[in-house]
Amino acid sequence: MTEIRCSLEKEGFIAHYFPGTREKNKAIIVVGGASCDEATCVSMSGYLRRAGYNVLVLGFYLWKGLSKNLARIPVEYAERAVHWLRSTQGIEKVAMTGASTGAGYTMVCASLIPEITCVIPIVPFDYVMEGTSPQNKRLHCSVYTYKGENLPYTETPMLDKGMLNWFKMAAKAKGYGLRRFMRFGYDYMSDSLNPESRIKVENMNADVLLLAAKNDDCWPSDVAVPRMLKVFEENGYPHRVESHIYEKGSHALVDGFAEMKGLAKFCVKTMIPTEKKYPKECEEARRDSCDRIIQFIEEWT
């Protein structure tokens, strides 16, 4: 079937919808990560489309027509997409997956939209942070909103002295360096996370598959996943929960890597230390993660 384009003007969200031939009652909403443009987001959904699923690739920022700020992103984009799938495409069961910042958006949306009943966060972080501009300026608001209100967030005052200072601090910190500056920042802020900004994953109405990379170079997905597993256990979470942390995988635990071009691919290859140290293992982790996700969706009933 022909791809369908959804727009802010007509449907209230921007997306590419790819009708599939497999399990026609299911659809998977896919979102990209921070700095992922429209083409990259579509590429990241390739393994699900090749498997034959109905796939809706949803834009939540950076795409043409959307804000370039990583700030005040409405949960309503996903909420409207869920309603559209169910009311116009005959979809009965909706899953959602995303990587990195997209994993955070996925979990936030699923915690507020009970119709999302399968959730697959890839290299997730479990706190909502302060919104920023493309120049990494503080915007004194949340990354996400719902019903026009900021969701609780953790402030990032270390940005007040600029990214150059952040780089210098990371460069001097043992075990970090410039190529792990992002991980340094999140670890540095770990003791000042606003408890109210924790994503309430226990409120989700979904089966959950959590995937992460050990000693993630970009942010502490390897810390967030065990923390969320503890929350599920303590709250008697009633749905299926599975997880896997790759010993030698990287933050780029996504499909579409082969299609990635130019600066984006150069940055992954040169700026993520694990990719340089374990290229074979990172590629194996990518393939394995796609297989795990497909199997998890197959078993989702």
Blueprint of the fold:
Blueprint: E1 4-6, E2 15-18, E3 26-31, H1 38-44, H2 46-50, E4 54-58, E5 73-74, H3 76-88, E6 93-99, H4 101-112, E7 116-122, E8 130-132, E9 138-142, E10 144-146, E11 149-150, H5 162-172, H6 181-188, E12 207-213, H7 221-234, E13 241-246, H8 262-271, H9 273-277, H10 279-299
Parallel strand pairs: 3-4, 3-6, 5-10, 6-7, 7-12, 12-13
Antiparallel strand pairs: 1-2, 2-4, 8-9, 10-11
Describe the structure.
The two termini are 25 Å apart. The chain has ten helices and 13 strands. With 301 residues, the chain is of the alpha/beta class. Helix content is 35%, strand content 20%. Strands 1-2-4-3-6-7-12-13 form an eight-stranded mixed β-sheet, with helices on both faces. The longest helix is centred in the C-terminal third of the chain and has 21 residues. Strand 1 and strand 2 form a beta hairpin. Helix 5 packs across helix 6. The chain is globular, with a radius of gyration of 18 Å. 45% of the residues are buried. The mean pLDDT is 95.
